[in-house]
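Example record

One chain of 301 residues, shown exactly as stored in the release files.
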Amino acid sequence: MPRSPTIFDRALLRKCRARAAALGSETFLLDRVAADMAERLTTVTRQFPIAVDLGTPNDAVRCALAETGRVGLIIAAESDARRLAPDFISVAADEEAVPFADASLDLVVSGLSLQFVNDLPGTLIQIRRALKPDGLLLAALIGGASLGELREAFAAAESEIEGGASPRVAPFADVRELGALLQRAGFALPVVDTDRLTVRYDSVLDLMRELRRMGATNVLCERRRTLLRRATLERMADIYGERFTDDDGRLRATFEIVWLSGWAPHESQQKPLKPGSAANRLADALGTEEISTGEKPDRSF
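Predicted structure tokens for this chain:
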């Protein structure tokens, strides 16, 4: 079986997150995800005795879920043992090697972490296997529309100054691809939706400093290993300002959050009706005339 390509340097990702914590983490995206995740969970009219938070970089999601009253035991699974959550039961676990037994969990959540997994289909399959029948996955990822402005400005500046562009913003997954991945992983009732957020900055350097404090700097394996040239950075800032400045002089940056949810299959779940089993005809509901297969409608006027 062919191995998935290695896109992200996950050892470097752990270093970036540790550096972000030392600088003072910027958490506004995670705070938003945590609040939205708690709200989504409260719409599900059931309890989840055992839950795992897989890879979320801080405690925001866990604390929000605890406040809902819908979740019993919450286990924090963190790939960097130095950052294990002191206020929760914690295990050192990488998102690419989910260590939980089959059919052992009622709920798996993840906030802004799975977008850095090299083998996302494999991780989703492992999560589905770890869920009990009728167990729920609820995850938020950074989507493909994120930081399109920064990507465009960097590509234009490098092409102009250095004669070619290097990868600087991760190729985050597309919404349609994620829906297909949930189905391939065996989830029932899969749902994918997006939340797009525009954040404004005084300068592109403020944006880059904030990304550093999110632990979201470049961790691509194919990244350029040489230092960014000053001329390229200055030209990138000029292009960004020319193309993405609002009337008040502030720059905009787009963040897309993609939400995934799916259930481990269970016999109690709704299933599509078999063809021909409907009690009422669609033509009757629409108030139109039914045309049988092979029969052409009358086009005479």
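Notes: Residues 37 and 224 are 36 Å apart (CA to CA).
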